[in-house]
Amino acid sequence: MTAPPRDTRRFLNNNTIFIKEETMKTAITIMMTLVLIATSGCKTSSPRGGSTYKNEGFRIAVPKFDTNLKQGEVRAVILSLQRGDSFKQDVRVQVQASEGISVDPTDVHVKASESPDVQLRISAAKNAALGAYSISVKAMPKTGQPTSTTFTVTVVAP
Predict the structure, then answer these.
(1) Over the stretch 15-64, which tens digit does the pLDDT of each residue have?
(2) Residue 67: how many CB atoms within 10 A of its CB?
(3) Torsion sign across C-alpha atoms 53, 54, 56, 62
(4) What residue numbers bound the domain in which 101 lies?
(5) Are residues 26 and 100 in the same domain?
């Protein structure tokens, strides 16, 4: 058997390199996707509040996935104000839970100079009905548009 012409070998080698480059591009794309998922965390955010101009508003970030809570348990959950670079206002945050679970605090004043994180304590009574409960969060800046969002807490058996 004779060797393929020299041009064909070069084509095969270039094809191998091309395949390796495409595999590397795919691996990099997968890694970047995973990094984006990891850095975005497990939170979802509200529509923009404050100003509609770029970097002058804020959003409320709440847990993205359902939070499980056993009957009789108290769990800490953190919500966060995601401020635009130019948003320097105090924000009043009001939290309201569905009947059957309780949340504390229900009214928080977050100053512009403070941490944007608010820790909530969510509790379910020992005899709370099993199932999903909604928690509504509303944030109102000193001036500008308010924003709101909800997240779900699921009460499960102990």
Answers:
(1) 555 555 666 666 566 655 444 444 344 445 454 554 445 556 889 998 87
(2) 17
(3) positive
(4) 43-156
(5) no
